[in-house]
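Need a sequence for this fold. Nothing fancy.
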């Protein structure tokens, strides 16, 4: 994926992107430290929903910077995780699918943590995430 990153982002936009990652990571880690799954905490936690809204609001301002890829990365992580949650729940509802649905939820939760970590480290290095 080749992105045009000709513009230098403003310091405030960099801070907003860090805050967005922090909100998502906080929600996901709540799933580790509570009875909730990582996946459900990530998708239903207020910090994550606020971070999603922030990503949509600031994405246009980040165009032509490396931050644009990060905001898109966070948005796509959220929506893809939601799709996999729906698939897992549909499997769980069938009762027979519990054997597949619960491990699927755990795997998708780990995938969310991986994507958040990969994106955060790329942001820290001021690189495009892909």
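Here you go.
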């Amino acid at each position: 994926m080749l992105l045009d990153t000709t513009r230098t982002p403003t310091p405030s936009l960099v801070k907003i992107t860090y805050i967005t990652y922090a909100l998502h990571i906080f929600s996901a880690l709540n799933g580790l430290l509570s009875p909730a799954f990582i996946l459900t905490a990530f998708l239903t936690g207020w910090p994550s929903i606020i971070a999603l809204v922030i990503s949509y609001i600031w994405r246009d301002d980040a165009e032509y910077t490396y931050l644009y890829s990060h905001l898109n990365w966070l948005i796509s992580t959220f929506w893809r995780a939601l799709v996999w949650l729906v698939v897992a729940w549909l499997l769980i509802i069938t009762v027979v699918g519990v054997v597949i649905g619960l491990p699927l939820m755990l795997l998708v939760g780990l995938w969310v943590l991986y994507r958040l970590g990969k994106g955060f480290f790329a942001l820290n290095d001021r690189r495009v995430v892909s």
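For context: Helices lie at 11-33, 38-44, 46-58, 66-93, 98-124.
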